């Protein structure tokens, strides 16, 4: 399958497919004319990449996880679950930090609004 076909089938822009390939997430072989050709499993691979990106994982981590899939879905081998738990804990920490920053910004906005009403 050519890159345009893969793009149409997955709904992912050609530019992103090239990026995934450059990041080592997706592989293709080249024709004599230099055109990319993807294996029939490529749409499933792209779906996995999109699922992991939506879960907040960086491409570097996704590249490490790609060989660890079980079956056709998004289930991963048990050997990578600790790594995923670490990523999950990091997301929780970032959420807590953002919540704290949001609260602080809200306090500043409220104080500023009160100061403006006194003027």
From TrEMBL:
<dbReference type="InterPro" id="IPR009061">
    <property type="entry name" value="DNA-bd_dom_put_sf"/>
</dbReference>
<dbReference type="InterPro" id="IPR000551">
    <property type="entry name" value="MerR-type_HTH_dom"/>
</dbReference>
<keyword id="KW-0238">DNA-binding</keyword>
<dbReference type="GO" id="GO:0003700">
    <property type="term" value="F:DNA-binding transcription factor activity"/>
</dbReference>
<dbReference type="Pfam" id="PF13411">
    <property type="entry name" value="MerR_1"/>
</dbReference>
<feature type="domain" description="HTH merR-type">
    <location>
        <begin position="1"/>
        <end position="68"/>
    </location>
</feature>
<dbReference type="InterPro" id="IPR047057">
    <property type="entry name" value="MerR_fam"/>
</dbReference>
<protein>
    <submittedName>
        <fullName>MerR family transcriptional regulator</fullName>
    </submittedName>
</protein>
<dbReference type="GO" id="GO:0003677">
    <property type="term" value="F:DNA binding"/>
</dbReference>
